[in-house]
């Protein structure tokens, strides 16, 4: 009798619980919300790209200083030194950071020359949070900007964060770090170029005291078609028609809303403006991540492309093609990709249709270029005064091969920054 | 009585609601599963009756490198004994004065000893036995670079067998002057390569993928040098056919590499074997 009375309320409660459970599953399962299905789609479409956030934001230079104080720039023909170092570095944690010095250029230069160290350099300042993501490490110190990290070979418990801006030195106390791993990487057979740090007009530059012999490269040029990008980035809004206007040397694509693309056929470059993107935030890491996501969305080949610099004044990030750890200049007047953040939701991206993917044997295996002092002397003789020089960097020159079609030769040369523009030194001394 | 009625009405409503919710949940998850992931492509392949063994998702590292067939074999030739040698282009063609007997099962052991003997085979230490490329009439040894085999007719030793299971001679190509053209870079996984190959319509219905290897193959020739890159090589056996077609996928980009002078077909057999 009692059971008969009870079955109705119990089954009602059971039905209620089942419906609650099912609704809960539908609401909480991320696969069912519209928002996440959109992110899933972008994830699928980037399957052509093998390049991760960690790959594109590698440090640009690795410099070791031995116990005798000899400094060398490290490259390797078989592996990418920066990737190798990042992958084999131990996973340390850090909690304490102490400012050691600021504003003193002499102390700063001495710190750069410190014996028994390894320096990892970026061309522009990055943040602690950014480093944590790029290196997959636990550096839990107050967020601050730095552009060099200095590891000590015989003291695993400390590391220095250095910032060229304001000559800031911060000492970080580490836990669980092992310097033997770092030493292992350095023990590999590497190509070493002797360098010294030097201050030129208040800027830290890398000085090559001797002639430098560098590998030359030849690549088959891969050229992406405009249609590829037109289909990929201009036809996202299904409601709108993309208007195409052809000019003599260029083609305009406009979706009457958020996106505009111009392809310059004389230089094979694309100028893409997107007014509907989550791009900028107050955090450097978020901005860089936003930029990376947009690169993946646009879908250019990123195999040899890496972060070069970020100018916080103009909110512009530059990415360059790298060969053997050295940046390539002259691919276009801006590098491989230039990303200018306009405001929180819009940006303008310039990129080249050309990319380097398949290397072929070069005509000559290496080329020698003069020392930095010799360069400065020659520039001086040609009327470019030392005080005008904002930077000097070793780079590869992008030249189309004369005998083979669709082949680009990369040969090493000096690039000098003058008036905020990188120029080949030969142009400055009137050879070009 | 009245309360009981209300309870039963509620029960009916909730049961209907449960059914609807369950249907909607189910439909969502079905729709979701067709929309994404290589697992579903693999599922689709099963539906097309394509047989394959479960592909790995591991990525590897590999190089671009160049090399050519130069003079090394000609320089080594005077050292070789118990055989008659001639050259056909850069290829060394040799006939043993006494055929080598092979007992079944010990093909590899017997020939490994031959290949390791500098008096019999030049530069033998650079080659290793390839079970997959070998057939009943031909045993193939492939050259290795950076711990990976090169599948190319430009760097193989091919032992010819007669009907009595005897090795009568061999022909050999040797790749020399190997130069790395770029630092090591990551490759795509076998699973990714397999799904790409299928999506490019390179695996017909009912076919069987008999083996998959990550091996270097030749991409192009430039400035007199062969340029090699890591590729996923798939052996595809067609339905109702005894022949196996080798297909290759660029292990960096996932593109299917076409073979032949006019780059017409994706059949890589002529690139990997010397076809007679």
Which features characterize this protein?
heterodimer, A: alpha+beta, TATA-Binding Protein, 3 domains, 14-stranded mixed β-sheet, 9-stranded mixed β-sheet, 27 strands, globular, B: 276 residues, alpha+beta, Lipocalin, 7-stranded antiparallel β-sheet, 5-stranded antiparallel β-sheet, 6 helices
Helices and strands, with pairings:
The complex is a heterodimer of chains A (432) and B (276).
Chain A (H helix, E strand, L loop, with lengths): L1 H27 L5 H12 L7 H4 L4 E5 L5 E5 L5 H8 L4 E9 L3 H8 L4 E11 H8 L2 E2 L5 E8 L5 E6 L4 E8 L3 H9 L3 E4 L1 E5 L2 E5 L4 E4 L1 E7 L2 H8 L9 E4 L3 E5 L4 E6 L4 E6 L9 H15 L6 E7 L4 E8 L2 E4 L7 E7 L2 E7 L1 E7 L5 E4 L2 H10 L9 E10 L6 E12 L2 E4 H4 L4
Parallel strand pairs in A: 3-5, 20-25
Antiparallel strand pairs in A: 1-2, 1-4, 2-9, 3-8, 4-6, 6-7, 7-8, 10-11, 12-24, 13-23, 13-26, 14-15, 15-16, 16-17, 17-22, 18-19, 19-20, 19-21, 21-22, 25-26, 26-27
Chain B lengths: L1 H34 L2 H10 L13 E2 L2 E4 L3 H5 L6 E6 L2 E11 L5 H10 L10 E4 L7 E8 L2 E2 L6 E6 L4 E7 L3 E5 L4 E2 L3 H10 L8 E15 L2 E13 L6 E7 L18 H4 L4
Antiparallel strand pairs in B: 1-11, 2-10, 2-13, 3-4, 4-9, 5-6, 6-7, 6-8, 8-9, 12-13, 13-14
Helix pairs in contact in B: 2-5
Description:
- The complex is a heterodimer of chains A (432) and B (276).
- Chain A is built from 11 helices and 27 strands.
- Chain A is α+β, with helices and mostly antiparallel strands.
- Chain A has 3 domains: 53-195, no CATH class; 225-352, YycH protein, domain 2 (TATA-Binding Protein, 2-Layer Sandwich); 359-428, no CATH class.
- The radius of gyration of chain A is 26 Å and the shape is globular.
- With 276 residues, chain B is an alpha+beta fold.
- Chain B folds into 2 domains: 41-64 and 181-272, YycH protein, domain 3-like (Lipocalin, Beta Barrel), CATH 2.40.128.690; 68-178, 2-Layer Sandwich (TATA-Binding Protein).
- Chain B is built from 6 helices and 14 strands.
- In chain B, the strands form 3 sheets. In chain B, strands 3, 4, 5, 6, 7, 8 and 9 form a 7-stranded antiparallel β-sheet that branches. In chain B, strands 2, 10, 12, 13 and 14 form a 5-stranded antiparallel β-sheet that branches.
- In chain B, a hairpin with a 4-residue loop joins strand 8 and strand 9.
- Chain B starts with a helix and ends with a helix.
- The chains are: A alpha+beta (432), B alpha+beta (276).
- Chain A binds chain B through residues 8-9, 11-12, 15-16, 18-19, 22-23, 25-26, 31-32, 37, 40-41, 44, 47-48, 50, 76-80, 217-218, 220, 303, 323-324, 357-361, 363, 365, 404, 407, and chain B through 4, 7-8, 10-11, 14-15, 17-18, 21-22, 24-25, 28-29, 32, 35-37, 63-64, 66, 179-186, 188, 192, 219-220, 222-223, 225, 227, 229, 252-254.
């Amino acid at each position: 009798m009692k059971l008969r009375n009870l079955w109705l309320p119990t089954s009602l409660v059971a039905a209620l619980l089942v419906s609650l459970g099912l609704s809960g599953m539908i609401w909480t399962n991320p696969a069912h919300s519209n928002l996440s299905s959109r992110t899933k789609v972008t994830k699928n479409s980037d399957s052509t790209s093998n390049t991760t956030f960690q790959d594109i934001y590698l440090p640009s230079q690795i410099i070791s200083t031995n116990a005798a104080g000899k400094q060398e720039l490290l490259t390797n023909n078989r592996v990418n030194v920066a990737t190798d170092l990042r992958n084999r570095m131990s996973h340390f944690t850090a909690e304490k950071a102490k400012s050691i010095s600021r504003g003193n250029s002499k102390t700063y230069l001495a710190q750069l020359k410190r014996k028994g160290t390894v320096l990892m350099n970026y061309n522009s300042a990055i943040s602690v949070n950014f480093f944590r993501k790029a290196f997959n490490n636990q550096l839990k110190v107050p967020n601050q900007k730095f552009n060099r990290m200095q590891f000590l070979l015989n003291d695993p418990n400390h590391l220095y964060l250095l910032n060229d801006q304001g000559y800031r030195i911060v000492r970080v106390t580490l836990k669980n770090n092992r310097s033997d791993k770092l030493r292992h990487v350095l023990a590999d057979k590497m190509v070493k170029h002797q360098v010294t740090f030097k201050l030129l007009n208040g800027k830290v530059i890398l000085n090559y005291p001797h002639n430098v012999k560098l590998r030359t490269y030849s690549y088959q040029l891969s050229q992406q078609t405009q249609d590829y990008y037109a289909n990929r980035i201009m036809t996202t809004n299904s409601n709108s028609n993309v208007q195409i206007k052809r000019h003599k040397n260029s083609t305009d694509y406009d979706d009457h809303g958020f996106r505009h693309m111009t392809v310059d056929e004389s230089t094979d470059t694309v100028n893409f403006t997107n007014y509907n993107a989550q791009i900028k935030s107050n955090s450097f890491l978020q901005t860089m991540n936003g930029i990376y996501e947009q690169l993946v969305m646009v879908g250019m080949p990123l195999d040899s492309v890496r972060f070069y610099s970020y100018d916080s004044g103009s909110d512009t990030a530059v990415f360059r093609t790298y060969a053997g750890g050295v940046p390539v200049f002259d691919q276009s007047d801006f590098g491989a990709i230039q990303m200018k953040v306009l405001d929180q939701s819009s940006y303008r991206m310039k990129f080249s249709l050309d990319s380097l993917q398949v290397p072929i044997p070069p005509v000559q295996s290496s080329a020698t270029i003069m020392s930095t002092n010799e360069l400065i002397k020659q520039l001086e003789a040609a009327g470019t005064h030392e005080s005008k020089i904002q930077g000097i960097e070793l780079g590869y020159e992008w030249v189309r091969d004369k005998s083979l079609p669709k082949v680009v030769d990369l040969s090493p040369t000096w690039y000098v920054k003058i008036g905020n523009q990188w120029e080949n030194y030969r142009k400055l001394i009137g050879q070009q | 009585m009245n309360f009981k009625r209300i309870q039963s009405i509620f029960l009916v409503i909730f049961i209907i609601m449960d059914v609807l919710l369950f249907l909607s949940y189910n439909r969502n998850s079905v729709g979701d599963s067709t929309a994404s992931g290589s697992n579903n492509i693999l599922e689709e392949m099963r539906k097309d009756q394509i047989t394959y063994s479960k592909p790995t998702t591991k990525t590897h590292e590999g190089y671009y490198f160049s090399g050519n067939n130069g003079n090394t074999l000609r320089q080594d030739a005077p050292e070789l004994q118990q055989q008659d040698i001639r050259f056909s282009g850069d290829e060394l063609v040799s006939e043993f004065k006494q055929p080598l007997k092979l007992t079944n099962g010990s093909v590899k052991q017997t020939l490994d000893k031959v290949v390791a003997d500098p008096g019999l085979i030049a530069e033998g230490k650079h080659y290793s036995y390839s079970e997959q490329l070998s057939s009943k009439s031909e045993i193939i040894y492939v050259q290795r670079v950076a711990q990976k085999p090169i599948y190319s007719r430009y760097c193989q030793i091919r032992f010819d067998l007669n009907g009595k299971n005897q090795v009568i001679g061999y022909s050999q190509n040797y790749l020399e002057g190997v130069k790395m053209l770029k630092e090591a870079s990551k490759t795509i996984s076998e699973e990714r390569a397999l799904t790409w190959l299928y999506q490019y319509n390179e695996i017909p219905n009912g076919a069987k993928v008999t083996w998959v290897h990550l091996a270097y193959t030749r991409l192009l020739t430039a400035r007199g040098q062969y340029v090699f890159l890591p590729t996923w090589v798939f052996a595809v056996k067609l339905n109702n056919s005894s022949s196996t077609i080798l297909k290759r996928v660029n292990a960096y980009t996932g593109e299917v590499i076409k073979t032949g002078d006019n780059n017409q077909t994706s059949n890589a057999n002529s690139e990997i074997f010397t076809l007679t």
